[in-house]
């Protein structure tokens, strides 16, 4: 069996192709000032809630793969070259910068609660040669913009990590121009599927649901986006729901995806929260990491992530 660290080094060299997806330091970064982990204590006034994944390198590595094509394809046909776009929860901003390329006469602002991850975002933007992208540290519940500011407000894989997604959606609606677009996309963990059958991955999926539930978040956000957008006050006649899928099936993709989750099981904020909430210990988490590596070595291994998507007019 390949060790977690060796598997990690191999996975670092792989970049998936555009029709595929995704989403160790010696110590996890979960207790950084801008990524608090206080179980059951998160409030909208905090700079950041208890982000389940945290900003460990294994998490950011998956975020950096995201592009407009593989993560915002449902939005791209609606973008105009002069649109002003807000990306809420932008992370390291690979997706944000790519959106800026699609609005060359407009602009994109990325906001995130983590000051540290925004430094990475600014470095990426500086190397892109684009002058129409910028970043601000901000809380999704209290966006620092006037009403009716943006043509498009976008949030990718954000609402599943918030204790009050309706409040965040109402805030996105507030800063969108009348008739502007609010576009959201989130995974649905209960809809994830894999082959071959694996009791270990089933246990991982169950634990993930237990941890997010303990912190007040909804792991199965994808299927709820349509209901949430309606409950947040958007006109049902102006809402377009859809779904997208990420799939990992090639040897390289399995190595990358399995390696990412093996690391997350032992070194990311997910591991911290699982232990803080007394749902797992180090031994159990190490066993789950090994299950991920075992799955990745399966010649016929296959994993799919279903993402819910919604476009709504403000």
Can you count the beta strands? 8
Summarize model confidence as the mean pLDDT.
84
Helices, by number, come to 11
How much strand? Answer: 15-25%
Kindly provide the name of the CATH class: Alpha Beta
Rg calc: 19 Å
Q: Looking at this structure, what is the CATH superfamily?
A: Vaccinia Virus protein VP39
Listing every helix as H and every strand as E from the N terminus to the C terminus, the arrangement reads HHHEHEHEEHEEHHEHHHE
Largest sheet, in brief, is:
8 strands, mixed
Q: Would you identify the regions where 5 or more consecutive residues have pLDDT less than 50? A: 1-49
Any guess at the CATH architecture? Answer: 3-Layer(aba) Sandwich
**What's the end-to-end separation, in Å?**
52 Å
**What structural category arises from helix and sheet content?**
alpha/beta
Amount of helix: 25-40%
How many separate domains make up the residues? 1
* Gross morphology: globular
Question: Overview of this structure, please?
Answer:
- With 314 residues, this protein is of the alpha/beta class.
- 37% of the residues lie in helices and 19% in strands.
- The chain contains eleven helices and eight strands.
- Strands 1, 2, 3, 4, 5, 6, 7 and 8 form an eight-stranded mixed beta sheet that branches.
- Helix 1 (4-11) crosses helix 9, helix 7 packs across helix 11 (282-296) and helix 9 (251-267) runs antiparallel to helix 11 (282-296).
- It is globular, with a radius of gyration of 19 Å.
């Amino acid at each position: 069996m390949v060790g977690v660290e060796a598997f990690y080094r191999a996975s670092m060299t792989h970049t998936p192709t555009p029709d595929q997806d995704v989403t160790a330091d010696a110590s996890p970064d979960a207790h950084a000032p801008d990524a608090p982990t206080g179980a059951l204590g998160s409030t909208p006034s905090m700079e950041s809630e208890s982000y389940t994944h945290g900003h460990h390198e294994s998490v950011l590595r998956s975020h950096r793969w995201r592009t407009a094509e593989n993560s915002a394809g449902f939005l791209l046909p609606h973008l105009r070259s002069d649109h002003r776009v807000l990306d809420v929860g932008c992370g390291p901003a690979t997706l944000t910068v790519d959106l800026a390329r699609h609005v060359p006469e407009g602009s994109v602002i990325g906001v995130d609660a983590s000051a540290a991850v925004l430094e990475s975002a600014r470095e990426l933007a500086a190397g892109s040669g684009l002058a129409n992208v910028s970043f601000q540290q901000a809380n999704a519940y209290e966006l620092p913009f006037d009403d009716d500011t943006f043509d498009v407000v976008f949030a990718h894989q954000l609402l599943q990590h918030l204790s009050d997604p309706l409040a965040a959606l109402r805030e996105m609606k507030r800063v969108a121009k009348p008739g502007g677009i609010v576009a959201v996309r989130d995974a649905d963990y209960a809809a994830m599927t894999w082959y071959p059958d694996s009791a270990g991955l089933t246990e991982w999926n169950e634990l993930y649901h237990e941890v997010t539930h303990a912190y007040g978040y909804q792991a199965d956000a994808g299927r709820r986006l349509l209901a949430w957008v309606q409950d947040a006050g958007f006109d049902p006649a102006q809402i377009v729901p859809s779904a997208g899928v990420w799939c990992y099936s090639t040897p390289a993709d399995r190595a990358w995806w399995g390696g990412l989750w093996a690391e997350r099981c032992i070194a990311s904020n997910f591991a911290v929260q699982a232990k803080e909430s007394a749902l797992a210990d180090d031994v159990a988490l190490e066993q789950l990491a090994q299950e991920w590596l075992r799955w990745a070595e399966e010649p016929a291994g296959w994993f799919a992530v279903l993402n819910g998507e919604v476009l709504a007019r403000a």
